[in-house]
Amino acid sequence: MKAIKEMQVSELETLAAEIRERILDVVSRHGGHLSSTLGATDLIIAMHYVFDVEQDPFIFDVSHQAYAHKLLTDRWERFETLRQFGGISGYTKPSESPCDYYVAGHSSTSVSLVVGAAKAIRLRGEEGKRIPIAMIGDGAMSAGMVYEALNELGDRKYPAVILLNDNEMSIAQPIGAISRILSQAMASPFYQRFKERTEKMLEHLPESARYVAKRLEEGTRMITPGILFEEMGLEYIGPVDGHNIEQLIETLKTAKEMNKPVIVHAQTTKGKGYEIAEGYYEHWHGVGPFDKETGKSLKKSTRPSATQVYSDKLCELAYKDRKIVGVTAAMPSGTGMKQLLEKFPDRFWDVGIAEQHAVTSMGPLAKEGYKPFVAIYSTFLQRGYDQVIHDIALMNLPVAFAIDRAGIVGEDGETHQGAFDISYLRAIPNMTLFAPRDDATLELAVEYAAEFPTPCAFRYPRGAMMLERGEYPATPFELGKAEYLECEGEVLLIGYGNGIGRAVAVAKLLKDSGVDAAVLDLRFVKPIDIETLEAATTQFKQWFVFSDSVKMGGVASAIAEALMPQKLATIELYTFEYEDKFITHGNTKRVEESMGLLPEQITEKILSILRS
Question: Are 51 and 129 in the same domain?
Fold first, then answer.
């Protein structure tokens, strides 16, 4: 393939079509992020044309929209393995390619990374040779971290280009034809040279004339979308057509040559090039395998997801109790909150990508007598950790955290695995942690949380619960009380949450091998059932712990802390929680197999221990 910088505009447009077709082909067969990455293709081609990916830091916010970047950096053939176990990541990953500057999976980090890169470039004496370029979606602009970084960037004036991919709505709605004409003019090199010369001229005018000219210039900016950025000390260009490659190239060249921080505002269409997905359809953001011709999903689910069970139960309770309220941070469908937002728009809110705000804003509602539910992924709750401590737990407010995607989430990989919530929440005073084992106890968990008088959190996995409804009777939660599902056996299997499904599966395999196992559903990891655990030390000598979480600070750790040293010395405690490393991407079963966590693998390990 001809080097991208040697191509004519017509060739670049052909390349864009080829990239979109490649993305559509692979994602339709394997799943992945679709609409955002199709919409960003022309922007990424222009970035690669104007900037040097081997020298300039290319920074993608979230980076799920960076598939075109991967295809332009020697991963065309490997793209077939996208998000598969052992294949390339769905996000930027420096260990995968030197053209990926930084790992990214969470939103709104890009501008801070730009500031850090710009500082390093200045310290290395490489200004004029290298310049950081970031792409950030307009949704990511709802997070406060972006404005913290913009504030410093505007003050320190580091040379940088921030490409704002506006694919849903303008930051501020342009006003009519005059705004469009001005915005197009602002994107031209002529306008930027004119503005620079005008500013120099103003320095030599009398005070009165300078005041009038300055007010005129400010009045002009008032009817453009860039006033927010310019008031923060950043240059603003746009909006420009995010699918006009020629215009994008000229605009980015202008921004690069300005030698200051510049926002380039480009308007794009999500799903560009695949008509079925074009426009703002949340369904097409992240997809499983689908039929390219019809757009219909190829996956058939016979059981409801835990998310759906949670959503239906909370909706049922919300009809009965007007004190129940809730929030999600830009994930209404992913967390099951969409139906509540639609049915109770005055009591349930989507606050955008603003996890810290989502958590803190629920505190006063709890203080005023309402019952807030914060529905959030385990990996994203990490972003609101200080707020959980400072604004909820410290006040001992009855906010319920419904932690979705707990455990291995599969293809999204390291940045999204829900491995740490038990460890990081268990350390917080006033926090109660419990978990359901199946759909029926998940419904009971929602009911229990709705009545709980202090902060609490319960976790559940992506997709369906491992243990099917009805395999064991569902009993209500009782604070700090565990429950035996199987009372007799040579060994004790202790499960927490979805880990119970794995424990039950292992118990059945052990029985086939002639070993009877008792199964204890821990139910609460804080407070933990010390009485039941101490009693079990006299009955079982080998204990095996199952939980979809890391070992460090996890469930086995909680058990060991709860038992008196002398009690702990009487048993052998083993755990099948996650090791102290980040978990790769891929099909969940393949990932679990690589970690030795399939029931068959665990059964062999336990039998080996018992034989030794």
Answer: yes
Q: Is 345 helix (H, G, I), strand (E, B) or coil?
A: coil
Tell me the C-alpha distance between 58 and 236, whole Å. Answer: 20
Same domain? For 238 and 273 the reply is: yes
Question: Per mean pLDDT, which range of 126-135, 230-239, 268-277, 413-422 is the poorest?
Answer: 268-277
Please check whether residues 360 and 238 belong to one and the same domain.
no
Task: Note whether residue 203 is domain-resident.
Answer: no
| Interatomic CA distance for residues 483 and 532, integer angstroms | 9
Indicate if 272 and 355 belong to the same structural domain: no
Supply the range of the domain harboring residue 240. 4-173+225-287
**Spatial strand order in the sheet of 348-350:** 348-350, 324-328, 371-377, 400-404, 456-459, 432-434, 524-526
Nearest 10 degrees: Cα torsion 170, 171, 173, 174: -80
Tokens standing for residue 542: 């080998």
pLDDT in tens, 403-459: 999 999 999 999 999 999 999 999 999 999 999 999 999 999 999 999 999 999 999
Catalytic residues: 270, 355, 383
Structural domain includes residue 299:
no
Domain CATH number, residue 368: 3.40.50.970
Listed as own residue / partner, the contacts of 68-77 with beta carbons closer than 8 Å and 24 or more positions apart are: 68/19, 68/23, 68/37, 68/40, 68/41, 68/44, 69/44, 69/99, 69/100, 70/97, 71/19, 71/22, 71/23, 72/4, 72/19, 72/44, 72/45, 72/48, 73/97, 73/99, 73/100, 74/99, 76/22
What does the buried/exposed string (b/e) look like for 310-336 if buried means 16 or more CB atoms within 10 Å of the residue's CB?
bbbbbbebbeeeeebbbbbbbbbbbbb
Provide the whole-model pTM: 0.88
User: Residues 513-536: pLDDT tens digits?
Assistant: 999 999 999 999 999 999 999 999
- 3-state secondary structure labels for all residues of 313-336: HHHHHHHHCCCEEEEECCCCCCCC
Give the span between the Cα atoms of 333 and 331, in whole angstroms: 6
SS3 341: helix
Q: Where are the alpha helices (DSSP H) in 258-393?
A: 306-320, 338-343, 355-367, 378-381, 385-387
On whether residue 327 sits in a domain, the answer given is yes
User: CB-side exposure of 520: number of CA atoms within 13 Å?
Assistant: 26
Helix (H, G, I), strand (E, B) or coil at 60: strand
φ, ψ at 298 (rounded to 5°)? -95, -10
Number of domains in the chain: 3
- Collapsing DSSP to helix, strand or coil, 489 comes out as coil
Q: Is residue 390 part of a domain?
A: yes
H-type alpha helices, 157-285: 176-186, 189-202, 207-222, 227-231, 245-257
Rg (CA), the chain: 27
- Residue 63 buriedness (CB in 10 A; 0-12 / 13-18 / 19+): buried
pLDDT digits (tens, 9 = 90+) for 172-218: 444 344 344 444 555 556 555 656 665 666 566 666 555 555 555 55
Which CATH number belongs to the domain containing residue 592 in this structure?
3.40.50.920
